[in-house]
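User: Protein folding is very new to me. Would you mind checking the protein record under this note? It all follows right here:
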Amino acid sequence: MRQRGRVGRGRRIGYGAGALAVLLAASGCSGGPEPADPRAVPVKPVAATSPAAATGAPPAPSAPAQDAVPDAAWAKWGVAPLPKAPAPPADRPIKLTRTGAVPVFSEVPTTDKVVFITIDDGAEKDPQFVEMLTELKVPITMFLTKDIVKDDYAYFKPLQALGNSIQNHSVSHPVMSKLPPAQQKSQICDDQAALTEQYGTAPYLFRPPYGDGAHSAALNTAVQECGPRAVVLWRESMQIHDMQYQAADKKLRNGDIILAHFRGPSELKGETMTRMFAELLSRIQEQGFAVARLDDYVAAPTG
């Protein structure tokens, strides 16, 4: 799905009157044909297979340290070595609760010079990308869409095994605000059930397609009822060779969340997923940022 520009204005993303038209023209995913309304079907209970699956808590840190990456590995992928990410904060700045309204965030409040990479959808399943992340040990967070990944759930398991968590991105990638509440819930709950069953851990984060409806009461209620404990947006989106910024000065800031997609040559004008990702890392490295693991900055739900 093709990115077409920026979403939101200012340091925080907000949606006012007429914003949906802006979203569809300038979102992190292309509009394309409007998907058919999904059926509102009950979600089958899925047995928890880990503490995270049972509690909705962020998984424990497990990603290898980047200082273990030899210079030759960076050179192989055409990237200058990134700064080493700092140790995870003892007091994680994103606070979640087990009940009530879920927070919406597009950046993490931190003084650490770090950014966070999130990759959406799951259309491109390039084995070289698995090789690249295995060698470079750059942490990512995956927001997967059931209808896009169901033909090859297995592809994402080696990436998960590297310590990269899998999160909820709906069943069929609809414009959420165009669906009635029951269908919004079905989109989130059905994806939640499928991803929990396939990957053994319940997603605790949700990203609405196109960022649409992120601040609406209907979507917030659906997220609460399906299990995720926060809605995650973004500050920058990666294109092919460069990023699109929400900030007017076109600079990264501490704690920014960056959006990318699992895409291949057909949507990257002939470029590969690994080339796009190398360009993304180069843009981050040029500004002196490290890439941190989003899970390490999110506290387990309380209350």
